[in-house]
Amino acid sequence: MKNNNFRKSGLAMAMVAAMGASAGANAAVEVYNEDGTSFSVDGYFNAFFVNRDDKIADTRSSDVKMGFLPNTIGFNFSKEMGELTLGGRSSFWSTINDSLQSPTDTAIDVRQLYATVDGSFGQVLIGKDFGLYARNNIFLDEILMGFGSPGAPTGVSFGNIRTGYPYPNPSAQITYRTPDMGGLKVAAGILEPANTTGATSEQSAPRFEAEATYAADLSGVALTAWVNGRYQSSENVTTSESIDSTGVGYGVKAAVAGLSLTASGFTSKGDVPVLITDATLASEEDADGFLVQGSYTLGSNRLVLSYGETDSEQGDFESESTTIGVFHDVNSNFKLVAEYNMFEQTVKSSGADAVDADTVALGAIVTF
């Protein structure tokens, strides 16, 4: 398939990480490819039977929900123009969890709507895409196509968001990516800043994010390592109080034969470690978290063990999540999932239990 934009999109990275390179390469349908112009469509559909034991409320619930990744359809464009390749991607992400709250008005959000310019210099992306901070932390999560920890009632589950990494918000951005430099790739961009200091505030500079990734094969061991970061500042012009939001994410993944081991983490300040939004913060408090995972693939089956924690002064919570999952490939475009998750969250300032839930999720995933 001759479509660089799809291979570089967030959804494509997720597919490759979770399904393997061969399945990811087949995850789009090429509609047109002539005279240097191509157009392709990709889709991701899933549903899970979810049974949850809520130990705090002393209730057990059964639901039909989607998993950590929403149901998605994406459109990819590419056109060769001399020494440049112009491209673009638009993807639409939809929940199925609001079927009783909004029976015929399913929420649709656009997480990717961008153009790219590729050349020997690398790539420039303009538009809306996932951020760079915590990007590989989430895209290389072994349970990305699973369910994970509980989330919003009518939205996706949270996977390992708030138990190991924050969410790399889709944001308006201008981002530059280098060519592959012997396994090293670097991306840096300016993104729309968040208002964290109230109504009378200013953000005199954009949000800055960057990520460096290194991939190599060391005597049969496939190694991927990364580090990413974020910085932004917001100032209240009335009180002159400012909030500097900083974060650093990192990780390493090693795979040999069917065994894969991943360890990642983050540390942040002035940033609630779930997602960055226009929300007033009282102070610059710390947060950190880590995620360790192992998986083993035997034939068409992949067994995953996952454990993550987050400790947040800013969000006033401590959380931990343990997941055991089995992924079975019926074929390259159809997958079955069985998962058991144990999630706990406490209020850090009081020690009170906020969430204590065990979840069984049985799902099916279809991609094209």
From TrEMBL:
Coiled coil feature spans: none
Record's keyword annotation contains Signal: yes
Matching InterPro entries: Gram-neg_bact_OMP, Porin_dom_sf
Superkingdom to which the source organism belongs: Bacteria
GO cellular component, one term: cell outer membrane
Keywords recorded for this protein, A-Z: Signal
Signal peptide extent: 1-27
GO molecular function, one term: porin activity
Name used for this protein in its record: Porin
Organism from which the protein derives: Marinobacter salinexigens
